[in-house]
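We give its fold:
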Amino acid sequence: MINLVTPQDQSTVHPVGGRDRDRFDPQEAWYPIFYLQDLDRAQPNPFTLLDRDLVVWWEENSQSWRVFEDCCPHRLAPLSQGRINEAGQLECPYHGWAFSGEGHCEIIPQQLEGSKAETSQRACVAALPTAIYQGMLFVYPGNPENAPTTAVPVVEPLEDAADDWVCIDTFRDLPYDALTLLENVLDSSHLPFTHHRSVGNRANAAPVELEVVESTKQGFTGVWEEGPRRGKLGRQDTTFIAPGLMWHDLTSKQFGRTLTVVYATPIRKGECRIFARFPFKFPSKFPALIFKITPRWYSHIGQNAILEDDQIFLYFQERYLEKRGGSTNFNRAFYLPTKADRFVTEFRNWVNRYQADPFPTESFSPPKAPEQLLDRYHSHTEKCASCRGALQRIQQLRLWCAIVGAIAWICLPLVAIYLSTALSISLTALSLGLAAAWLSLARLERKFYEGRAIPPRNLLK
């Protein structure tokens, strides 16, 4: 971990995105890569940031998370396939070279006693600066010397009276660009249509008049004076902090203060990890209690479904944009006649003005089938501690339902012949109940693996 800039250090702050006034360097910024609660301290955790493979691991000696380039300097094997050895070092799976938290090689098993090959700079692994804020692990991929004085993108309202907020969060690896994700979530006018019957309603569609309040290299702020649901919820303020954080801020009598927060962390061209957070300050304690007792995995099933409302068409939309000249030609590719697209226009102008596309020369991969885009297991479940654990418990329950139900069914004829009719009826009911439970658990289990082929908006009444 590193010491980060504080408000008293403003004279030494390194600008996010670098010092070039005309260009935003995506490398010179902090990015969230995991919620802390989803990291496994017992083994290495892989992640790809800006097309750079990384490995995240817990160093017991320093009691901190470490992030290395996922590549052993010996024969280039991925360290994420290794283990944390008995000495608390990250060990390569290929030949057992082991590394301490700063990236220094500590062990080369193949060398003769007294040799010091591990002291060479060539034996070291690149270690990236890390920081922990608001329950998330951030990493800095740029010049490590700039990391301590570069601001970490935090959600500022959550820093004020943090205990008053109730926060629901989720994440998922999405099959489209971080730029596409940010463009989408900055656009509130799509909610009534795209998310009809999930978190939106077509009946709430109305003219949307957005205004940009301030715009700089570091992002922009904007306002929707009327606000959602035809003004019933009040004004909504929007903040975009470059390169990958935005939130909508809404205060209403019905729901109190509500934030919709999205971090878009670029994995590679056409892939990103979304960290979606939904902090609430409710006017009463009862809704907060309900939110707190709802299992995290259960909330994630619903949030995954909402993300899938627009997942397929956004995947193809960005490919259509690329064919029409890409982001630099968005004004001609898109027809944006209303103020509902004001934030979209501002965001795309910001990308072009500061050359902020993290993959300007790369192209999208060949299109995938829609079924592949709805995968939940590899994009979320296996990486989420709560969903992974819930899935294991559900599978165990299904197994026991099958075993006990089968035993009850096999015993049924003997009970009917030699014992009472009442016991036979009870055993029949038990068998049928366990069969129904097995089927219900099978339907629930499926939700951890794949999304719905037909979004709710397209279902027939």
